[in-house]
């Protein structure tokens, strides 16, 4: 065990800077100790870094933590949450309501810090967006925070390009700061995101790397010997170093270097000592993720020149010190901004109205005008094709609906093709088509970052590669962000690319994720309805699952209207009069197959019903009466048809129902051969339906 290397701090003559820094440290140590769990070492080490940034540089008004042009601060090493909570507490950040109204009370009272990690505390284990005002994004899964910060920085560039005008060239000029550790640096997602940030020359982005050489298993000599500085220089970043995390002067100089750098993002590598000041734990992994222990805390406090027995102690003058620093500066900037937005509204009423709506997650008037209707067509078109038409029509009406693909736009058909849409690049931050590159995981996090700044972003790729971005998608759902994920090539229907590209378990994956709305439309008109639902979501990410191959456009004069999609499942075709003998439930491309089977069954004198079920989540949200009207409990003969794992389907078909599904990874072959091999034929569905009727008895 290493012995203390930190010089003891004189108990007298402490500056307010030092006292404030030590308040952050001791609050963090005490909270972790009281919770008997948590991560004390990193807040102790980084307290001066965060203090310097917040007190001297951050343009953030604690009284109004949702002011649109505030600087964003992201704690990507979310396990160091007490660092953030201490700052939120000491700067007296106000709570904000769901309707973005600033409330009188503080977001993190001392009581919340005392109940760190306890049920319902505003200080949960890791920072949670939407739960604790002032937390800009949920962090904990390492690497996500920094990648999300890239999305925030992109969003600011886009906002500036669209809304800044002569005389208002600083309407949007906020900076994005993210602190990260060795873990974030090791994760692939941060590398993807840094690569894109460098390429896009995001000069408003600053990452601060806590180079403490410690992770959970010990010294980074075990695992991590990258030359991080060289790596980031290679990405096109400006890289600077601060050799001692306690050196406020050097820190300030580094932040100024960032602010003066206008052509690239900045990485500040800060050498720090985890558990700084704790005599037996400093510089060891023991300081990472467990309480220091009462004795060690006392010794650390002694080192800080702190009253050893005081807990959760905020010395006189500390709150006021923050009020005079970040508080005063932030309020002035915020008030000046709102004064200017009043002038802006006079000169640019339409742009101001756009901003207002966007910031409140409202759509423009007439956002759904001109959405295409599709005529019945037995040949039809791929749902990715119909989606392209609907998306383009909607995006024309919603200027801040922007996005792109992970190098697959020609396949996912998500390109905005109308005049003026443009491409987002370092040369054109106003572009609406984004090229995320082959970086799915960071694309998800970037969508989150853009969405946190209140843009309406979409990202797209092959459905199979949702596996590459699940970590980010999960955070979209956890944060209740209405990010839009468009996934195409949704089944074995994609054909020859074979098992590496054929989603099997991905639908079940998505359905098991709380808070997410997935829609797999059956035809072009369901696609239109799907986009209508998605664009009206406020707090849920949406996953739109589309085909590569053509599907018929269903004749809606013969079958039910596509508007039924909004309820998640609806009766598309039915036997007139009485209850059906058997219910066929299909999603996406398999709905047409169900209709084919229905026609055959009807010919054979069987009373069948077809339910199109594009979204389990939307359907489960309906009242019981509606659900029972679509799937009457007494009709037990049920067949689900979906080119995927049957995992979860018994919820609708019952354990005695039949699931036409796929239990392997698919195969490489032309689609016709695949459909036959895996049993997606009219004959097979008809046979399954008849078998069900025999098994359960006819209700005729
Ligand atoms: C994606 C992910 N993998 C693993 C973890 C578990 N974990 C939490 S902290 C940590 C070590 C992080 O080391 P570092 O970033 O250097 O943080 P420090 O100990 O220096 O604060 C790990 C592995 C996690 N939170 N996220
Ligand atoms: Mg570390």
How would you concisely characterize the structure shown here?
This protein is α/β, with parallel strands linked by helices and 700 residues long.
List its traits.
single chain, 700 residues, alpha/beta, 6-stranded parallel beta sheet, 5-stranded parallel beta sheet, 24 helices, 22 strands, binds thiamine diphosphate, binds magnesium ion
On the 0 to 100 scale, the average pLDDT is: 96
Bound molecules: thiamine diphosphate, magnesium ion
Widest beta sheet: strand line-up: 12-11-13-14-16-15
| Poorly predicted runs of 5 or more residues | none
Question: How does the overall form come out from the CA principal axes?
Answer: elongated
The amount of beta strand, in percent, is 5-15%
Instruction: Report the count of strand segments.
Output: 22
Q: Structural class, please?
A: alpha/beta
Largest sheet: 6 strands, parallel
Rounded to the nearest angstrom, the radius of gyration is: 28 Å
**Spatial separation of the terminal alpha carbons:** 80 Å
Note the total helix count: 24
Helical content class = 25-40%
């Amino acid at each position: 065990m290493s012995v203390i290397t930190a010089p003891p701090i004189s108990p007298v003559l402490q500056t307010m800077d030092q006292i404030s820094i030590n308040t952050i440290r001791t609050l963090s140590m005490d909270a972790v100790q009281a919770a008997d769990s948590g991560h004390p070492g990193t807040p102790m080490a980084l307290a001066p870094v965060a203090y310097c940034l917040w007190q001297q540089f951050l343009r953030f008004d604690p009284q109004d933590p949702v002011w649109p042009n505030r600087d964003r601060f992201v704690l990507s090493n979310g396990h160091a949450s007490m660092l953030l909570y201490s700052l939120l507490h000491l700067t007296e950040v106000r709570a904000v309501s769901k309707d973005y109204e600033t409330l009188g009370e503080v977001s993190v009272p001392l009581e919340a810090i005392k109940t760190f990690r306890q049920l319902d505390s505003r200080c949960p284990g890791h920072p949670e967006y939407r739960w604790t005002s002032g937390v800009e994004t949920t962090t904990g899964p390492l690497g996500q925070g920094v990648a999300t910060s890239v999305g925030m920085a992109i969003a600011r560039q886009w906002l500036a390009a669209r809304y800044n005008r002569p005389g208002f060239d600083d309407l949007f000029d906020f900076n994005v700061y993210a602190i990260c550790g060795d873990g974030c640096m090791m994760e692939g997602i941060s590398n993807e995101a840094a690569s894109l940030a460098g390429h896009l020359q995001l000069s408003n982005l600053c990452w601060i790397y806590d180079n403490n050489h410690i992770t959970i298993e010990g010294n980074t000599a075990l695992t991590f010997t990258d030359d991080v500085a060289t790596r980031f220089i290679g990405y096109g970043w400006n890289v600077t170093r601060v050799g001692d995390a306690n050196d406020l002067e050097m820190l300030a100089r580094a932040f100024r270097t960032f602010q003066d750098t206008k052509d690239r993002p900045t990485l500040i590598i800060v050498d720090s000592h985890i558990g700084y000041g704790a005599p037996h734990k400093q510089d060891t992994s023991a300081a990472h993720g467990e309480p220091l222990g009462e004795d060690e805390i006392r010794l650390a406090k002694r080192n800080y020149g702190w009253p050893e027995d005081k807990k959760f102690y905020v010395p006189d003058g500390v709150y006021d010190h923050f009020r005079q620093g970040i508080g005063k500066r932030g309020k002035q900037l915020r008030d000046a901004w709102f004064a200017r937005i009043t002038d802006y509204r006079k000169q640019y009423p339409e742009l101001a109205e756009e901003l207002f709506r966007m910031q409140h997650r409202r759509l423009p008037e007439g956002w759904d005008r001109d959405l295409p209707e599709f005529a019945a067509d037995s040949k039809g078109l791929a749902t990715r094709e119909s989606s392209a038409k609907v998306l383009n029509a909607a995006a024309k009406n919603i200027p801040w609906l922007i996005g792109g693909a992970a190098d697959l736009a020609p396949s996912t058909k998500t390109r905005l093709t109308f005049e003026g849409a443009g491409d987002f690049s370092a040369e054109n931050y106003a572009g609406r088509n984004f090229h995320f590159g082959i970086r799915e995981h960071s694309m998800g996090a970037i969508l989150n970052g853009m969405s946190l700044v209140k843009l309406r972003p979409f990202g797209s790729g092959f459905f199979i590669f949702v596996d590459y971005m699940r970590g980010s998608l999960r955070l979209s759902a956890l944060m209740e962000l209405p990010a839009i994920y468009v996934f195409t090539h949704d089944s074995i229907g994609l054909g020859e690319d074979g098992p590496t590209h054929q989603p099997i378990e991905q639908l079940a994956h998505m359905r098991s994720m709380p808070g997410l709305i997935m829609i797999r439309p059956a035809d072009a008109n369901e696609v239109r309805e799907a986009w209508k639902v998605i664009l009206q979501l406020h707090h849920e990410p949406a996953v739109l699952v589309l085909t590569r191959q053509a599907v018929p456009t269903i004749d809606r004069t013969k079958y039910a209207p596509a508007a039924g999609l909004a309820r998640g499942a609806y009766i598309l075709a039915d036997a007139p009069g009485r209850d059906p003998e058997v219910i066929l439930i299909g999603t996406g491309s398999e709905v047409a197959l169900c209709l084919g089977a229905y026609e055959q069954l009807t010919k054979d004198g069987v009373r069948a019903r077809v339910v199109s079920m594009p979204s389990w989540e939307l359907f489960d949200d309906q009242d019981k009466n509606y659900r029972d009207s679509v799937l009457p409990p007494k009709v037990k003969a049920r067949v689900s048809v979906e080119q995927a794992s049957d995992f979860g389907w018994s919820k609708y078909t019952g354990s005695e129902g039949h699931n036409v599904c796929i239990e392997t990874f698919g195969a490489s072959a032309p689609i016709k051969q695949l459909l036959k091999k895996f049993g997606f034929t009219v004959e097979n569905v008809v046979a399954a339906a008849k078998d069900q009727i025999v098994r359960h008895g006819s209700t005729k």
